[in-house]
Amino acid sequence: MEQLNRVELKGIVGNVRIQTYDENKMARIGLATNFAYKDREGTAVIDTSWHNVIAWEGRNIQGLDKIEKGTKLHVLGRIRYQNYTGVDGIDRIGTDILASQIKVIDDPSQMSYEM
Question: Is the dihedral of CA 96, 101, 106, 108 positive or negative?
């Protein structure tokens, strides 16, 4: 049986924090994606989801310094879950998207696509 852990996101950067570890750049990006639909009354609703994206600069990811709030991104990667204990002592599960490719979307018409 083949196993698969793959995520594809197109969204807008809400925040980005770039750090350097031993001359390697890593970015923590808050990426917002929207899902639009109409409720039972026909009112348009936009459901925004926030994703924690972690990207290490390397072969498929370049120019992390160019990413800022409002940048439109296309991200390919995988999901990673981590268990940790919060400051309040409660066990929690964190979800990250580990990016394998990031592309800045210059053309706004590329932001929408059909499923």
Answer: negative
Name the band, by pLDDT with cuts 50, 70 and 90, for residue 110: low
In a domain, 89, yes or no: no
Question: Residues 107, 24, 97, 10: what is their CA dihedral angle, to the nearest 10 degrees?
Answer: 0
| pLDDT average, residue stretch 84-89 | 92
Task: Give residue 106's pLDDT band: very low, low, confident or very high (50, 70, 90).
Answer: confident
- Is pLDDT at 114 greater than 80 in this prediction? no
Domain count within the chain: 1
| Contact yes or no for 85/94 (Cβ under 8 A) | no
Give phi and psi for 33, each to the nearest 5.
-120, 145
Rounded distance between C-alpha atoms, residue 107 and residue 72, angstroms: 9
Position 5 in a domain: yes
pTM for the whole structure: 0.83
